[in-house]
Design brief:
The chain has 278 residues and is an all-alpha fold. It has one domain. Helices cover 76% and strands 0% of the residues. The radius of gyration is 18 Å and the shape is globular.
Length: 278
């Protein structure tokens, strides 16, 4: 299977996991969903790492990986909560503008974005503005439900990439394991501190477990894709994960967006893709 197919399958898996995460968070505490799904994912990525025989990273690589895990946990919590209170078709594309964060970090380091990336940023921001407005209103009248949290999710996912990139020199496989272990510990700790339910209701358990399974599967597929082809192509195709979330929300939740928001979603995803490939 070539890189494009693997990346697209990874995107579909991520999008499906996000849908189940948002759906479960409408029926139980978001930290319960996050902690259980992250624990399931940790088992999956640890099994993958052991199976590949990858070298264990040193302390210097563990720290940024742990930071990535912390940022990722915040991003996922924000995403699931935003999907619980807002339309998935609105918040999912906004969360996908996360490539702008590592781009901003590069800019701070003196690495100037390409013309294509500047175009992507402008396109993605235009899309976010169109998605964020209340139907029939303006941004001044207030943001749509979940938009603020979706922006927090984008920031968290972007910082996750920055941290993982810094840790990857010591081995990307175990960097993912360290990141997932950190996010699991933080999620469980927050759950205990806030006295959230330790277990989801039995009827929701399959959906919560599915979040971890789909997320882990996506990680493996995208990692394999990078070994079969261009990292730029993989980045663009895997960034299309919100399309699966949007499709599932329309199919199972009957979510429908007005024409302006549909255009906004296309612009947000297209802009994110331009930033990733640039």
């Amino acid at each position: 299977m070539d890189a494009a197919a693997l990346a697209l399958l990874g995107a579909m898996s991520w999008g499906t996991g996000d849908f189940f995460g948002g759906l479960a968070s409408r029926r139980t505490h978001v930290l319960t969903v996050l902690a259980v799904s992250q624990a399931v994912g940790l088992v999956g990525v640890a099994t993958w790492a052991i199976g590949t025989g990858a070298a264990v990273p040193g302390v210097g690589d563990v720290l940024p990986a742990a930071g990535a895990g912390a940022a990722g946990a915040v991003g996922l919590a924000a995403l699931y909560r935003s999907m619980a209170i807002g339309a998935m078709g609105v918040v999912a594309p906004i969360s996908a503008v996360s490539p702008a964060v590592p781009l901003a970090v590069d800019l701070a380091r003196g690495i100037v974005p390409t013309g294509l990336q500047w175009t992507g940023i402008a396109t993605a921001l235009t899309g976010v503005v169109l998605l964020a407005r209340e139907p029939g209103g303006t941004l001044r009248a207030g943001l749509a439900a979940g938009v603020s949290l979706a922006l927090v999710a984008a920031l968290g996912f972007g910082l996750f990439v920055v941290g993982l990139d810094a840790a990857a020199d010591g081995g990307a496989t175990w960097a993912v394991v360290v990141a997932r272990a950190t996010s699991t510990l933080l999620s469980v700790g927050a759950l205990v501190v806030l006295s959230a339910p330790l277990h989801p209701p039995p009827r929701l358990l399959p959906a919560v477990v599915a979040v971890g399974v789909f997320d882990t599967t996506a990680n493996v597929l995208v990692a394999l894709a990078t070994t079969h082809g261009s990292a730029g192509i993989v980045a663009v195709l895997s960034a299309l994960y919100p399309l699966t979330t949007i499709a599932l929300a329309r199919l199972f939740l009957s979510e429908r967006l007005d024409a302006t928001r549909r255009v906004g979603g296309v612009l947000a995803l297209g802009g994110a893709a331009l930033v990733a490939v640039g």
